[in-house]
## 1
Amino acid sequence: MLDASITPAVKVLLTPLVKQIAKTKVTPNQLSVVGFAIGMLALPLLAFQHWYLALTAIVINRILDGLDGALARHQGTSSAAGGFLDICLDFLFYAAVPVGFALADPAQNALPAAVLLAVFIGTGSSFLAFAIPAEKYQLSKPQFEYKSFYYLHGLTEGTETILIFVAFCIWPQHFSWLAYGFALAGSITVFTRVYGGYFTLKKKAVEPTNEE
């Protein structure tokens, strides 16, 4: 919900750093992999209840995730392969955070973490599944033209997910209720994406083409 508003501001903030990185031999894919590796450190840190160290790893991961795509666009090296790598690593990272909290306190956190992971599967699959036919029908994406694939809106997007991860780390004692609340919001996202995506594609499939 917030990505369309937040992303342009973040892009402006990252531009000076991107220009500096562009002077080195660092590639966007290298940034993606390094960011993923740092982000995955959050899992053991959360498991051992080092909340603020885990939060640091999460924040660094998100900064590098913003930099890799910005660097690719700056260098003119954006590609489907890079976009594929980035989104795969993102979803693996997203899944690691609830697992870390489940390991930190299995008795208290395992069930809400499992519920949250199930919703993540729903939001991720509806998000990615729509991108395939969207590419086929060449649907426009005016708010996210820089994305390598169609970016489907929802109540819970990347910005909201990072905000809830931050909340998890600041208030770990309330992980259960925070996770259930975000899972509910995510369920609304799944419903609206499936409903809206289905009827959008159904309508598109019966539209007449411009070919004679």
## 2
Amino acid sequence: MNILLLKIEAVLRRSSVQTTVKSMVEYKNICLEIGNYTIYRDGKKVELTAKEFEVIEAMLLNQGKVFSREEFLTALWGYNYFVDSRTIDVHIKNLRIKLGKELIQTVKGVGYRVAK
């Protein structure tokens, strides 16, 4: 049964490669290409780590929603994460340096958000 499942997954992977559609999210001066992990600020490409990209992607796709550290850790590292909750603070700090301080807002005692 396991072999059958692996073969089905392989066929689905091969067939979905041809139908991949790149989608973009635009917010103020930021343009995010979801399909290929690229982000632009004022038309210039910004280099982000994979986790930084996943953090900003989640925030831009859910504008106005306040994300707590625990939500980020569960969404990005899974339920069995072994990282400090302050890891998110480091990623937010790096994103503010790379994309601008005004992009991400801090909600004291709760978490972070991108305004609508």
## 3
Amino acid sequence: MDLSPIWLTLKLAGITTLLLLLIGLPFAWWLSRGRSFFKIMVEAIITMPLVLPPSVLGFYLLLAFSTQHGIGKWLQHTFNVQFVFSFQGLVLASVIYSMPFMVGPVKSALQQLPAALSEASYTLGKTEWQTFKSVLLPNIKPSLLTAIVLTFAHTLGEFGVVLMIGGNIPGITRVASIAVYDSVEKMDYVAANNYSLILFSITFVLVIAVFVFNKYQAKSPLE
């Protein structure tokens, strides 16, 4: 059995989750602070991957980053960077497609924190960034872990969007979900089952770990 699609999938999920931690947390914090029409529009755009068919998102990414026109043509000529049918293209698509899984839980958790926490921190002379890092984030650890695991697990199962922008290139863009589809097309159900079982096992363990952690965090000191 060729395990390269599994390793490529884990690599993609890890990089995507790390990037979304860096990008998604500031977005979630910004969106949690007040409401405006502009923020509503930004949140709607971030949420769109939840309701759009993955193939639709993948199609527009394919058009946007094609080396024949648009942004893709400019990137190719200016920086010699190509996102279509490349691993970096998979990362780009995954970051966009999985962003609501990182931003949503963190934003909701931040909105539920009492305003007194931030106000007390500001009174002690802490900056907004110091308050966010040292006061707010430690108080939403269960939601933060949930967002990280959901992002990682969601990336493991991506199919339509990565197929559209990455294709099926062994060792470069052939992730596990595509390997499952490819094996079924070849009537190789043994290989399809092996890939599926590995993905199922990884995601199941991750979800159980989140439930156990959240249950532990929810226990009162008296229990």
## 4
Amino acid sequence: MGDSYGMLKLLVSSEDRRLLGVHVFGTQATELVHIGQTVMGCGGTVDYLVNAVFNYPTLAESYKVAALDAMNKMRTVARLTAEM
């Protein structure tokens, strides 16, 4: 699209991996936010977004990228906590 701004952020529970919140801004944000609302409404976890198949290339694919990032951050925190 050529935009140089925009963001999709997921808030995930580290205890049970449930999706707790979604922040989206930028072009077509209103076309994206409903995906997170649906997962949250069903009590879904970040695992659902990691395993879901998104069309490529689409903006919706950013959910998979954000979910993988969240999983990596949770692994890092768990590893650092275990080392203490």
